[in-house]
């Protein structure tokens, strides 16, 4: 049987690189929880269980040219797009050097212009029309870039999802709407969020193709996002892709999920942990011999340790720098 | 009288009102099974069932809009916005609809709705979990905005808001939720919406403020009192429409006024307070009207040093009071 | 061949009453334009071409118990629900006695509590979540009422449509979402408004049935709305019905439609003017003998004349009554 | 210098900026083929094509949000809200996003966006086509709000807004559109955002206002001048953030200040102006700071007598100026 990635025309080293990025994503995420639970960082929002969707999608894009508008769980997306572990540690510790916000925003609020990671906020779904606007601008300039915007299934109930998707549909803009359906919006299960069975049922209402796919398989996600990107570049407009995942952690470090879901349910979901299944895949494909794996884990551990140490010791922004950058030309600080 | 926390006063008021009137119901994100992200509605889902404690889809304009619809036909919805910062998608429903329903229908329809939302900083919430949003709404006749400072006021004012015939925005300071405790009668009582409350009488200077800052002012007032400076602390409680009379009375009495808000300064609640005083008590003033507020930057940063720099605190308040007293 | 209304179980006198209401709607609308063009009233917003949808829908409901949340073109709906020609004339002249708003709102901003016509505003689509909230309240009280909310196809692109429809779907609420698709949102044709082919394509995204039907046939509309109301009363939740119509007039009296659509297009649409086709139907059904028709036209003319005269001579609200009714208990006027 | 109308100045500025910079584009409801419901964009669709003059779906949050996205990658979008009243669905995008993009990204991203919207009453537009909405936004650092009074200012300020590196709300008084005419150079020029303009020098009283009311004040000033009372008329032009220095200067000079807005009084722009004066010029004042504004009711009714009652007009302004002068 031909291996799936071969069928999709993905090179071996790319698959390895996908696995590597996924592993970094997970190990970094795990470390964040440790740092939080040991009182070193005040807040964590986590993407465990959603890495396959993130990595599969990001790798299907042109990571030198396309834009991503990630949401708060998207370590995988931003790492694939060039943000470093150190950058993310700096954000976790809220240090001045944090490229996302200089320590102004909570972790998970990504943004890095040089990597075309578009600055995001907390109110969910506001990024959806932004992705559409970026696509519009790029199309005006006859560029071939695509915007990928991600969001949770709960967030697909916001008006901005509807308005943005319809706008993209009318103007046939190169946008990929990627829903990471992890079954919950904080405590509210999908059955109380969505009147439709699937988020992708909404695509027809915006004149775009919609797909619901296995979000635990990065290659499956790659395939659909790649096709969507190709369509977009051919001028055939936007696509909606819903990746079915599961949020393996509580909503954030402030949440206790035992009040609204059972331990069994979470345990069962862990059986299809995307990291495990993808690891099996790359192993079976012969791309991850044991010693290479060991080495990989080790180098990631080192990278995370070094980043952590750097970030922990890095300086905070000066208190009064809170006055900077209200408007252009306020480098000297706004008037008090 | 039991001593309870600010958030327990919220919960107590909600429970008692739901027991009193079967038309009262709660809707919002995570308010049901989870009992709210701050636990303000804890236990209510169990007591009143999911019909009266609705976990809604993640859509604030619908939360407000659905609540408005229900209110128009006789229900008493209490809508929760998970954070005040996330009320913004509901602005159209609140301003264009709730605030105008009575007026535009010439009193045929009304909208007895309460929107609760935790606001305020100092909890490491960064730009979008720390904001004071009252100034956005404090220019809309038809709305009332209540911002209580103590558990006692929370209970009495939240009950009054639920019984009010018009839409009320009820902003609860999230840093006060667990840090502020006080006596709260178990009995039923309401406090008047639209009335300020003199939390401390004094003759030398007047501090007018609301929310968490009331506590900073009261603390500083004690210190100043030890030095013979008597501060009057006026708690606005309702920040829109303002209690002009109470403002004018206290300002005229001491002639030295310090206004405090945790919000950005320009265009804030205290700007209107200053304007009222300047209009009505100019010749009673012995000092310029002082305003102490957050800096005019979009919102409070996450990193602790910057957050502290922005956030109001007892030291800043005491310093400003002292300066005014010495003027 | 059995007559359509018989097949639907509609009594002859109901069909006549539907025609009568439709005729009143049209004649009143025409009079409004005359009054506007002769400078007697400052503003008209018109429903010509959409009467069949309005009348068909309203008559399919329980007009003693159900709620309607009409939009500005819905003379037909509000007349069917008990508002009088005189009431509407009072609104057109903005007089104190206007039950909608006492002259505070523009014409077309309906509201009359005693007839369960819910007060509306100008920002489009805000009424959609209200309909959902009313249905929620009625369901809580175990009542059997239905809420009908109408809106244009352009307005179905607002976030409030999406959020409201999804809420109704999740909670299986007795709401009927009736889109009056008249092909234009002011000057913008449906092709630039909607990415989907039909508004009803959106229904699946809210877990409700969706239909696109002939909005020029009041009986067809009756049928679908009746079925939707029955479903709603059985606890089966909301429905989305898109009625295909055409806006025969300019957007409002302030609009000149010649800048964005051709006279031919309008002329062509007039060939399927719902009033004409329904008139033919009732005539063929033997329900409108010539003398009865003549008499009907005459009595409507009289009714409109009398209403107009009354309204024209009725007093305005006192200037300072602008201060009333800001809050409960401000009958004496708000503070200045 | 040709004399043109206020709305023609809008059109001229748009056309010139679109000719100057191919990144400038327009989006909104009916702005294309129809040229806007007020005809502010007339002819631009023909000149620049539908790619740069987009008729959007009827969805204000998308209009703002899409414009923000485009602005973040280097475009200069000018979004039209058909009426200022209908900006409300876009509040979340404007306040949570546009205003905070530079700050939250530590200057990495920016949002050079213009949102144009016709506001104001006196045109028989009733509750939802007459409103002044600036107070909703005039408390959000990161935003600028410009409200010009004359065709000359319209052109210079709209051009400045389009070239500005940050988001600007540009509110145009719809009653001024055709009723106000004035000299407008054909040449390119910009006027500074953030600066008030003294439209008339005077020594006895100061009137501070903006928009249509500037004309009422200038008219009344002429009448009073005939009686020997010299009025200084300060046109704020930018209502957020305010030009404190200009306000303080004029208030200190005359010592008698009247503030005017067409908006409701409580929580309005002039409240902040009053607060600034009360903070900085208290001892220079010879009279209480007067505010003349619309009544605190939700919005202007449709029926002419009630509309007139609400709406600001030359008579009300003259009366208030005279009273202040006589104080
Ligand atoms: C407008 C808005 N309302 C509420 C919140 C609070 N909130 C943060 S995340 C969240 C749930 C999001 O659920 P979903 O979209 O499914 O994403 P997930 O967290 O499951 O990945 C909520 C309610 C918010 N951030 N923004
Ligand atoms: C939120 C909002 N934006 C803009 C407008 C201005 N406006 C009034 S009607 C209209 C077009 C509505 O089109 P559609 O929904 O198709 O209804 P139709 O008028 O065609 O019946 C617009 C843009 C408005 N009333 N509300
Ligand atoms: Mg989720
Ligand atoms: Mg239409």
Describe the structure in your own words:
The complex is a heterotetramer, with two copies of chain A (336 residues) and two copies of chain B (327 residues). Chain A has one domain: Rossmann fold. With 336 residues, chain A is α/β, with parallel strands linked by helices. Chain A contains twelve helices and seven strands. A five-stranded parallel β-sheet of chain A has the order 1-2-3-7-6, with helices on both faces. In chain A, strands 4-5 form a two-stranded antiparallel sheet. The termini of chain A are far apart. In chain A, α7 links the parallel β2 and β3. Chain B has 327 residues and is α/β, with parallel strands linked by helices. Helix content of chain B is 37%, strand content 20%. In chain B, the strands form three sheets. Chain B has a seven-stranded mixed β-sheet, sandwiched between helices. In chain B, strands 9-11-10-13-14 form a five-stranded mixed β-sheet, sandwiched between helices. In chain B, α11 links the parallel β13 and β14. In chain B, α1 packs parallel to α7 and α9 packs across α13. Chain B starts with a strand and ends with a helix. The model of chain B has no long low-confidence stretch (mean pLDDT 98). The chains are: A alpha/beta (336), B alpha/beta (327). Chains A and B meet through loops of A and α3 and α12 of B. One thiamine diphosphate (TPP) sits at the interface of chains A and B.
């Amino acid at each position: 049987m031909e291996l799936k990635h071969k069928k999709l025309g993905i090179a071996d080293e790319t698959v390895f690189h996908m696995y590597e990025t996924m592993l970094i994503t997970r190990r970094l995420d795990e470390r964040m929880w440790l740092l939080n639970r040991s009182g070193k960082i005040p807040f964590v929002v986590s993407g465990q269980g959603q890495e396959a969707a993130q990595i599969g999608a990001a790798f299907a894009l042109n990571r030198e040219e396309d834009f991503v508008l990630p949401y708060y769980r998207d370590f995988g997306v931003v790492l694939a797009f060039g943000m470093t572990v150190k950058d993310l540690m700096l954000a976790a510790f809220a240090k001045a050097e944090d490229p996302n916000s200089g320590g102004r925003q909570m972790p998970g609020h990504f943004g890095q212009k040089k990597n075309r990671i578009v600055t995001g906020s907390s109110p969910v779904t506001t990024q959806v029309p932004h992705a559409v606007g970026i696509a519009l601008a790029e199309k005006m300039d006859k560029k071939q870039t695509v915007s990928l915007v991600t969001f949770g299934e709960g967030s697909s109930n916001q008006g901005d999802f509807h308005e943005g998707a319809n706008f993209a549909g009318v103007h046939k803009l190169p946008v990929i709407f990627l829903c990471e359906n992890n079954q919950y919006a904080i405590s509210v299960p999908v059955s109380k969020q969505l009147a439709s069975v699937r988020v992708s049922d909404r695509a027809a209402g915006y004149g775009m193709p919609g797909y619901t796919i296995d979000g635990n398989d990065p290659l499956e996600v790659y395939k659909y996002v790649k096709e969507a990107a190709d369509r977009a570049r051919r001028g055939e407009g936007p696509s909606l892709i819903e990746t079915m995942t599961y949020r393996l952690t509580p909503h954030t470090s402030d949440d206790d999920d035992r009040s609204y879901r059972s331990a069994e349910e979470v345990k069962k979901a862990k059986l299809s942990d995307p990291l495990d299944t993808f690891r099996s895949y790359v192993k079976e494909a012969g791309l991850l011999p044991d010693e290479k794996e060991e080495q990989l884990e080790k180098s990631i551990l080192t990278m995370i340790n070094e980043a952590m140490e750097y970030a922990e010791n890095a300086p905070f922004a000066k208190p009064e720098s809170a006055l900077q950058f209200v408007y252009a030309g306020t480098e000297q600080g706004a008037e008090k | 009288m039991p001593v309870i926390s600010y958030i327990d006063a919220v919960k107590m008021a909600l429970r008692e009102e739901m027991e009193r009137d079967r038309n009262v119901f709660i809707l919002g994100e995570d308010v049901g099974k989870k009992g709210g992200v701050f636990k303000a509605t804890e236990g209510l889902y169990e007591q009143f069932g999911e019909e009266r404690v609705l976990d809604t889809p993640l859509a604030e304009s619908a939360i407000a809009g659905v609540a408005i619809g229900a209110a128009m036909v006789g229900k008493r919805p209490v809508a929760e916005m998970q954070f005040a910062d996330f009320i913004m998608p509901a602005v159209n429903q609140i301003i264009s609809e709730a605030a105008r329903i009575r007026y535009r229908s010439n009193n045929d329809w009304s909208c007895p709705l309460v929107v609760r939302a935790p606001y305020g900083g100092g909890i490491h919430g960064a730009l979008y979990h720390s904001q004071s949003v009252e100034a956005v709404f404090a220019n809309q006749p038809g709305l009332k905005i209540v911002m209580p400072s103590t558990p006692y006021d929370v209970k009495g004012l939240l009950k009054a808001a639920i019984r009010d015939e018009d839409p009320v925005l009820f902003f609860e300071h999230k840093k006060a939720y667990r840090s502020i405790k006080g006596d709260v009668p178990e009995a039923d009582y309401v406090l008047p919406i639209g009335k300020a409350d003199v939390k401390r009488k004094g003759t030398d200077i007047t501090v007018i403020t609301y929310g968490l800052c009331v506590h900073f002012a009261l603390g500083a007032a004690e210190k100043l009192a030890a030095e013979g400076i008597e501060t009057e602390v006026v708690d606005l409680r309702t920040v829109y429409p303002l209690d002009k009379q109470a403002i004018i009375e206290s300002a005229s009495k001491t002639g030295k006024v310090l206004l405090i808000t945790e919000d950005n300064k320009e265009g804030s609640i205290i700007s209107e307070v200053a304007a009222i005083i300047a209009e009505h008590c100019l010749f009673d003033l012995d000092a310029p009207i002082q305003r102490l507020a957050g800096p005019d930057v979009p919102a409070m940063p996450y990193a602790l040093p910057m957050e502290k720099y922005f956030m109001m605190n007892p030291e800043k308040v005491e310093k400003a009071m002292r300066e005014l007293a010495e003027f």
